[in-house]
Each structure stands twice: as structure tokens, then as C-alpha cells.
Amino acid sequence: MAEIEQSPPQSVSSTTTSAAAGEKYSKAPFNIWLPTECTRESVRNRLIETLSSPSILSKRYGTVSREETVAAAKLIE
């Protein structure tokens, strides 16, 4: 069998890549920060649900009461 000689991939400077990505996405039509109230509420509710109901995490670490979870979610936010 003939062996094919492959050259190692060329490395690109991260600053060049970052600059190119910044230029490419600088005119993006959306914003991910600051989240809307609806998004914040969804994340908060998901956190409360995850910590206070049976899940993979609760099997290992246990569940937290809903009241404690609501307080923790507000504190985290």
C-alpha cells in the first residue's frame, strides 16, 4: 500500500481569527445580553424546577424545598 504523506494542519493566529469573527458578526441582528424579562423568568423557573423536583442531580445531591429554591434562584439572579 502506498502511504500518503499528510502535512500537519496550519495554525492560525487566534487574534486574526478573533478579529475576523468580530468583523463578520459585528452586524448581528440579535442580542443575547441583557436577557428579556421573559427569558429571565424562564431560566429562573427551570432552575427552580431542577432543584426542587426529582432529577439526575437530586438523585445524587437530594432535592431542596421549593421555598428555598425560589430564594436561591432570586439570589443567583
Automatic annotation (TrEMBL):
Residues 30-77 form the WPP domain. This is WPP domain-containing protein. GO terms for cellular component: cytoplasm; nucleus. Residues 1-21 are annotated as: Disordered. Keywords: Cytoplasm, Nucleus. InterPro entries: WPP1/2/3, WPP_dom, WPP_sf. It is found in: Cytoplasm; Nucleus. The keyword Nucleus applies. GO terms for biological process: lateral root development; mitotic cell cycle. Its main location: cytoplasm. It comes from the Eukaryota.
